Structure formats: structure tokens, C-alpha cells
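thread: overnight batch results

M.L. [08:02]
morning all. the overnight job finished for the chain we discussed friday. pasting input first so we're all looking at the same thing
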Amino acid sequence: MPITDFLERNAKIYPNDTALVEINPEKQPNCQMTWREFNLIDTAAEGEKYRREISWREFDVKANRFANLLFTRGIKKGDKVAILLMNCLEWLPIYFGILKTGALVVPMNYRYSSDEIKYCLDLADVRMLVFGPEFIGRIDAITDEISENIDDFFFVGNAADTPAYADNYAEMTYYCSSTVPPVELRDEDDAAIYFSSGTTGFPKAILHRHKALVSSCYTEQKHHSQTKDDVFLCIPPLYHTGAKMHWFGSLLSGGKSVLLRGVKPEWVLQTASDEKATIVWLLVPWVQDILDSIDRGDVKLEDYTLSQWRLMHVGAQPVPPSLIKRWKKQFPTHDYDTNYGLSESIGPGCVHLGVENVHKVGAIGKAGYLWETKILDENGNEVARGEVGELAVKGDGVMKCYYKNPEATDEILKGDWLLTGDMAKEDEDGFIYLVDRKKDVIISGGENLYPVQIEDHLRAYEKVKDVAVIGLPDKRLGEIAAAIIEVKEGMECSEDEINEFCSTLPKYKRPRKVIFATVPRNPTGKIEKPKLRAIYCGGSLVEAQIKG
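M.L. [08:03]
and the structure it wrote out:
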């Protein structure tokens, strides 16, 4: 059955039950009210409510209306429709509306610059773009160029703010039919394109089939035992496979989910309290911030109702065992879990720790439900337990291919097996531990940073002779980007100059540490990053070579 059937089933069985809630803390009034009470106040004058919700029936109706609108614009099975939105109540109904037409949904990273947006739209052959108010400037800058291929733009926001080249989503869907589109969907049909990047930093278009989406529903629900009574608090962006695939467990169980637009500790705790959240997915920096706020006394746990919160799980980057020990000290009744995955494997879940294995904190776990794993040497042979090799995974969640990139596809897909690019080893009990990434990608606060992009930018500075960017360990973010800069002979350069030059980069891509030193290269001209890691990350060169 296609994943859209789960939505239609929930709309029939639980029509009036809450499916989705959006909380926007920046709209909170300066008064002593619970968020639920504030929702009763008419905030239309502010342009946006503080708390919005829809039922399962409303969710399905909105998806059907958008699907039928797409039909009127000529969208058909196999076309591509992109979503460029911050987390909001409209996000998932739009996603499912696209799927119901048989078209492919193309979620876009909201951090993309105008050039990156154009590149990804072109790469995925997108015919239609749905975007929000935060992106007007970026779309304005490339409208003339992308309009050659994109037939329609839909704006999700106040009608008065709708750009001249776009139609307003709410106005256009209001009059559309709410009947279920008569489109047959099969497991092997193409469903979605997500974007990832390799060490070069250029995004690749990852093509997934409907069976991958369905598989992730069952994997997530099995791992975290969601029931109808569970409430899932979702904070990470929905363009990530991670956030959406975790939510798929709630879709399968018919439970309520809450989209929180903000990550401040008091917002997370207040939302968990008011919405009676039972499952909360956090990233390492947010866990760190909550614990630090508790230690400083900025938040007091007795001010919140958190007894219903049963599961805290963390993903998107390696999790320090010491952090979980701190969490369990503050929240001793919480189950803890972690998942491992990548966009090429439809997000988290191909490796899973399990709440019963908290004694194995530091491991990413064993093969997830409906998944297989093995660890391979450079010749594709399985290594002995305890030895380091490349992690490979197999399951229905493996991508079909890199869209329009057969060479890259052949590098990562070996039959039914997906090479993850991550170096790992198994302990005596069969639990998998990541050693390091085979690629040079830096994961900082759950976001991937690509050294080549930063290096290319810095090389344009007139005083820079050579540059290498590596990840340095960071207590809060997991890693930070450090730029090792070799200055041209006879010139002097300061850290302030480098920071100023990098101010044109998106904030998350800017190096957080600048080191002036020689950049070592081997005889073939490649930067010797293992040497740099040995120098600046600690450890021996042998250890750095394994990690590099």
C-alpha cells in the first residue's frame, strides 16, 4: 500500500483527532497564559497564530485539495514539485498532496542560497515550486532564470505578500475539490528526491521509491513503539529525511505530532509540558543547551509537567556517552535511543541502538528493523569482528539511484547494498561503533558542512596561499569547522580579516576557528588531512590515518 493510504485511513478512523500542531514561540504573548489558552484568542491581526492545529480529516482534505490544484496546472505522474518552506502546518499536507498526484516531491534545504536553489531545481527537473515568505528574496534573485523550466510558483503566506510571479497557496486551494485523486500508486513508483552532497560539496539528487517511504513507517514505529496515545514533538526541519521519517511512525499509529518552530530550552520544555509530549527527538546541541540551562537555573523542571515524557532520542551526529549520562541524571525515567542513517537510506533507522541497550551508549546499534548490515574492507569483503571497515546497509529504504548521475550511483550501490562512506567496527556483542567518516564531511550541530566549499571561498582571498578545512571536536556541536590557512609569503593576515571575508558565507558555513600554519600536501597534490587531524585533534598520526 502507498504511504498516502495511511493518511486516508487515519482520516476515516480518527477524523476529528488532532494530527498536527504548529507552535510558534516568537508569537507568544507577554502574559501568564498557557499556550493552549492563548490559541483561543484571535491573533489574526498579528498575521500568524501562536498555536495552530489540524485534524486527520483536515490534513487529508488539504492534501486532496492541493493534489487537485496540481492537476489543473498540468502536473502528472512522474513530474517533480519542490517544497521550500520552514516547518509549518502546511508542510506535510503539501508533501502528501504532491504524492497523491503521482508526482515526485522534492524537499529543499531552507539554508540554500539562491545559486544552490537554482542548481537543485535544475538538477531535479522541477516543474513547480512551493515556497514561503522567508525565501522571497532568494527566489526574486533567480526568478528570470528558473522560470524557463518552472511553470508555476505557489506562495505559502499572507495573500498581501504574494510575489507577482506566484499564486497564493491558500487562495488557490480553497475552491479545489477535496475528493481523493484517482491515481494508482505502486511500491516501485518514484516518490521523492532528496538532496545530499559528497566531499565535493555539490548536491546530489537522491531518488527514492514509494516502498522506501512505507518501509520507514514500519521501521520507525517498530523502533519506538508509537501508539495512538503517543505525542511526538518534532523540532528538526522537515526537509531532512530524519525529521520526516521519525514522524512517519506517528502517521502509522495515528498519533498527534507537534512542530515546534524554535529550539530554546524553555520552548522545548514548555511545549513538551503543554502538549503532553511523550516522544521528543533532539540533536546533541539542544540536549546540551537544555542541560546547561538546568544547571544554571535558567529553567526549573518543577515548572513543567513532564511525567508523560517517556522517550528522548538523539540523532544526526555521534552522541557523546557523557551527555547521555548527564541527561539520565536529570531525567532518570526517560528511555534513551539513537538511530543511524543517511538520506540515501531514507534517513534514520538502518542501524538502531534500542532503548534496552542504554549500557551500550556510544554504539549506533545493530541492523534496524527490516534492515541488514555488514562491514567491508576495501575489496568488498567482510572484515572480522573488531576490525575497521566501511559500513554497508541493505533494505527497502535504499535509494533507487542518484538522479541523472549513474557514475556516482555505481560508486555507492553494489547490488542491493548501499555503501555508507562511514568507517565502523563491531564489538564482541555485534554492536556497531562509528570510527569516522570516510568522506571529509563535518557534522556540526546535525548539519553537514563540506570543507571544499569553505576552502574554495577562502582561496579567493588575496592573502591566502593554501587552505584546508577540518572538523575539530566540540562539546556542544559535536564538531566545528577549523580553517588551517597558509598565508602568501611576505604578507600578514589576521583572524579578523578572515572572519570578515567569510561574512558573505551563510553563518553555519563560516569556520569557527582559524589557524595560521603550513598546509601539508602529498606528492600527488592532495591535502594530507590525516596529518592535520593528528596535529589539531589530538592523538597519533596512526589514529588520524584510520580516521582520515
